[in-house]
UniProtKB/TrEMBL annotation:
Alphabetized Gene3D superfamilies for the sequence: NusB-like (1.10.940.10), Vaccinia Virus protein VP39 (3.40.50.150)
Keyword RNA-binding annotated: yes
Biased composition (Basic and acidic residues): 13-38
Catalytic residues, chain numbering: 404 (nucleophile)
Native source organism of the sequence: Deinococcus aquiradiocola
Limits of the SAM-dependent MTase RsmB/NOP-type domain: 198-463
InterPro entries per record: MeTrfase_RsmB-F_NOP2_cat, MeTrfase_RsmB-F_NOP2_dom, NusB-like_sf, NusB_RsmB_TIM44, RCMT, SAM-dependent_MTases_sf
Protein name, per record: 16S rRNA m5C967 methyltransferase
Amino acid sequence: MTSPRSRPGRARPAQDRTAQDRTSQDRAARDDRPRQDAPQDGAGRARFVHANPARALSVRVLVSVMAGDSFAAHALDDALSHADLPPRDAGLCTHLVYGTLRYAPLLEAALAPLLRGETPLKARALLLCATFEKLVLGTPPHAVVNEYVTLARTGFGPPALVNAVLRRVEAPDGLNPDLTLPGWLAGQYREAFGAQSSAVIADLLQPQPLWLRLTPAGQDSLLDEGSRLVAGEGTEAAFGDVARVELNRPLRATEAYEQGWAQPINPASMACVLALGDVDGHAVLDLAGGAGIKAAMLSAAGANVTSVDRVPGKHRAARNNMKRLGLNANFITADLTQAPDLTPGDRVLLDAPCTGSGTLRSHPEIKLRLTPQAVQDAALLQAQMLDTAAGLTAPGGVLVYSVCSVTQAEGPQAVQGFLTRHPEFTPEALPDLLVPAVPSGDGALTLPLGGVDGFFIARLRKRAD
């Protein structure tokens, strides 16, 4: 589990907008005005250059994301909500933003031989987006050059440079999916998934599907409204009661969502809850609970849940969602790097802050920001929180540790270090997680194929007194 406060590279929810994000979007929007060196008519007046609105918005969003001002989901939702684009243009904008981010390292490699020195951010974003269209989408080269040179004239970069680069850019080593990750991160994926790593890395380039935990009434309601359950390549339509869904309207406009019959959650995230086993009637501590999605799933399974996080605003969102779902939980604000004054639970879930490296399909901007140092920083935080979780697990109780990351330092190595420091704990076999998984140290990694995220999950039993 990740959050903007402590989880390097992880995307914030789209609704979590800040004034800073809006300011950067507004500032970028002003770049559509003609530059002083824009083409002029015979009277010396600047002619307004009409850039394609979907492409212009895509590049503005990419500028914001690449500058670190915002995360892709939020920046795109915010931009589209103010742009009033037709559905087709909005779809193109979404595809260009996410596609460019998913392929960014490969696109950077393609552009590198054609650029000298440091390229200004706006020009770099434009060239990446254009190169994605040319090399990946297969848009005719003359159309790419024409569209993006026109866009460059609105203030995004030197038109002559854009023209020259886009005419010459070619794909490095074809379109090898391994090149869409930084080399060190591709190495982490290969270490985690072995022979399946190439398929996993290629799958990260696909659009992320919508997963919903549905009650029977929710499933019937969505089907009645014209939505459908779908099966992806090599992926079932549903894992337990978490289904892959294609909606014919926004989720919040569905009866299933309004009535509390549907909750967005990735099957791998649900697997963390299932790792606790039967929780009916048990006191469960949901540590680093964030927006309370797993707390809601635990409550639905009959647990007496206390969710702990250090950000009060997340509790407000969690309470509102619990009310929508007709569920209950206790929410406590505490810093889990220190021992809070809480009664130990016989079931404890620590879905710890992490790098989010297992969620690149839905949050591709992570690969642009994540560094090996960020992994080490996350591992230090996780070790502190695991030590706290040890004290909050009742004798004889179960502690489940999970992270939405595939790195060794945050997963198997974190558990190995924990067991060395806390010999009162022993690893246990995981119950059926309902998703494909591979062994990883004293735990397992969910296999990130078909839109399932990559989570490391371990189940640890505390010795009874």
